[in-house]
Amino acid sequence: MTAFVVAGHDGEDTLPVSVVTPSQTHSINVRVAKPNLWDYPDTDALISFDTSLLIGVRTADCVPIILHAPDIGAVAAIHAGWRGSLYGIADRTVEQLCVRGADPTLMTAVFGPSICWRCYEVSEQLAADFDRVGFAHCLHTAPNIDPLTHSTPDPSRPHLDLEAVNRTRLLSLGLQPANIIASSLCTRHTITDGGMTMPSYRRDGTEQRLVTCVALTGD
C-alpha cells in the first residue's frame, strides 16, 4: 500500500478534489479521520487508514508535514506553525502512529512549502523559547539581504528555521534521514517560473491557504 501527495490553493481558487481538513487552532491535537466525517474541531493533524479519504492541512507560511507509515497502512497530514513546532505536533502524530503499531524507522516524511529561515524573523522571546527546549541550532542571525525585498533586515532580530525544528523532532523519534524529504520552496519569497507566488501571511496577510494533502492507494 502506497501514498501520494498533492498540493493546491484554497480561497479564491477551488481544489479539483474533496479534501478532509481539520479546524486548525495551532494546537497539538491529533485525530483519526473517518469516512463521512468532515468536522474535526481544534485539531492540527489528521491520520487516515482509509483509501477513500484525501486528508490535508491548510498553511500560509506554517510547515505542512505529510507522514506515511507503510507497515500499518496509514498516512497523516500535520500543520506545524511556531506553536505546533515548539510544543511538538509532529511528535504527537508519530507517537499516535507508533501506538497503533508503526515502526518510525519505516516512516517517510515529506515537508511542503513553508516560510524559510531567511524570511522568518521572530521575537527575542520566541527565539529564547526554542533555545530553551533544545533548538538553538535552528536559530540564525538575520541574513545580509532579505530575499523578498532585497533590503537589509534588522540584524538584532533572530530568525527561526521551522522546517529544521520539525526535522530534528522527527529524527529524534527514529525516522531515518533518507526518509525525510525537505522542501526547497519558501512561501514568502519563492516565485515560480510562471510568475506565481504561494499564499504567505507574513508577506500579504492573505486569507488564501496552500492545501497539502495525502491519500493511501489501494495497491
Detail the poorly predicted runs: none
- Per DSSP E runs of 2 or more residues, the count of β-strands stands at 11
Which bin fits the share of residues in helices?
10-25%
Largest sheet: 6 strands, mixed
Backbone structural class: alpha+beta
Q: Output the CATH class name of the domain at 3-115 and 180-216.
A: Alpha Beta
Which CATH-level-2 architecture of the domain at 3-115 and 180-216?
A: 4-Layer Sandwich
As for the CATH topology of the domain at 3-115 and 180-216, it is CNF1/YfiH-like putative cysteine hydrolases
Order of helices and strands: EEEEEEHHEHEEHEHE
Number of helices in the DSSP assignment: 5
What's the N-to-C terminus distance? Answer: 5 Å
Lateral strand order in the biggest sheet: 2-3-6-5-7-10
Q: Overall 3D geometry?
A: globular
Cα gyration radius (Å)? 17 Å
What is the mean pLDDT?
A: 92
CATH superfamily of the domain at 3-115 and 180-216, by name, is CNF1/YfiH-like putative cysteine hydrolases
The share of residues in extended strands comes to: 15-25%
